[in-house]
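Note to self: the last two entries modelled the partners one at a time, which told us nothing about the interface. This time every component goes in together.
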Amino acid sequence: MAQQNIFDNEMFFDGYRKLRDKEVNANNLFEIPAFLSLLPDLTGKEILDLGCGFGEHCVAFVEKGAAKVVGVDISEKMLEIAAKENSNPAITYINMPMEKIDEIDGTFDLVVSSLAFHYVEDFDGLVKSVYNKMKPGGLFVFSQESPLTTAYGNCDFPRWTWDENGRKLYANIADYGVEGERESEWFVKGVKTYHRMFSTVVNSLADAGFTIEKMTEPLPDDALLEKYPEYYDLFHKPDFLLVRAAKK
Amino acid sequence: MAQQNIFDNEMFFDGYRKLRDKEVNANNLFEIPAFLSLLPDLTGKEILDLGCGFGEHCVAFVEKGAAKVVGVDISEKMLEIAAKENSNPAITYINMPMEKIDEIDGTFDLVVSSLAFHYVEDFDGLVKSVYNKMKPGGLFVFSQESPLTTAYGNCDFPRWTWDENGRKLYANIADYGVEGERESEWFVKGVKTYHRMFSTVVNSLADAGFTIEKMTEPLPDDALLEKYPEYYDLFHKPDFLLVRAAKK
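The predicted structure of the combined assembly is written out below.
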């Protein structure tokens, strides 16, 4: 099973970096706050970050008291930036596909991953590896694109239907029950993501031995909607799914 | 909080009975097999069935070895049929809203419910009551309409978009993130259902103390699709969500 390394494609990388540099985007407004709200107290914790990218989370974890952070990413380019901008004696960056974390020494109190799992084909296998790398009592916190978002792909109709005023009226959802690869264009052609139903995400976690503690589909509140009314579309189709699961 | 008793409305009841009497419907093809596949060995078990309706499941449980079955339903009319057609010394039918199961004596090895919870406003409270009525080691197995189905309501557009050949192209999903009451027409006007996101279903179970073991969104297999190609639409939008959760 080949691991996709789209982040080392230069056009993709440049487009992605510009997007992440924008202050107002769905990640900053919804995914990051929801992700942080699911984390436990990090004091003294040993943490593994899967798909750590530029290492922003890794360095934030150290600032919040983490004893040790291992950041794993398949992209050499992203880890070069991480090493330049977010290095710290308590952080080790490892350039490898997250499917190979069995090779990392030790076990962790907390395994996290932010918006990387929808690039992973074998989620079931990955979740089992994560479970094995965790200490008893440990937590697993991750975000991914919502199954309502990953369902779309290879379609000859748009994601949305708009009303006569140009507002999104509803999301066009097809093939939600057809799991597997989706090819789409995001900065470059041929970006591959993998769609899984809500039930499949839950079952992979349950089968590995995890107890699901919390699931979040972030939505805007009134104050945010007043400032950015365009995000009402998240009520029709949330962008993100976040989970906290425990190894009891 | 008022409990809805739409099943004692005569027009609704007649329409519903005719639908359930049809051999080929989505309940028989998808919901019932998925529901049965989630059940444990029933030998000697004490079972509580919430929204038991005509009691078909209750009598089947006894035939499979259950020691005692309590069937609860808000509809007197349905329980009259249950008493006539599906009575058994091991079964007790109780006419009450399932929100009041705290009043029932004893605890159970298994609590089940088939396609009734989308009529319940306070799911969170109900799940806590179910947990309290269960023995340690007990299981909770239920089905409900899929959140992708309950999301629809009070909309001025149809549930589906069809292609030029009259095939369903995609489901029109709006207000998935807006939880709560939906009013729709199903045999009669004003049938109320309650929409909850996948994450809310999961969180109510987790907060009550349940460990989620399995979640199912039933889909047709190839053999079934060959016979009933119209059920391909379940790949776009599953009708049902089923869950098995354990009180550890």
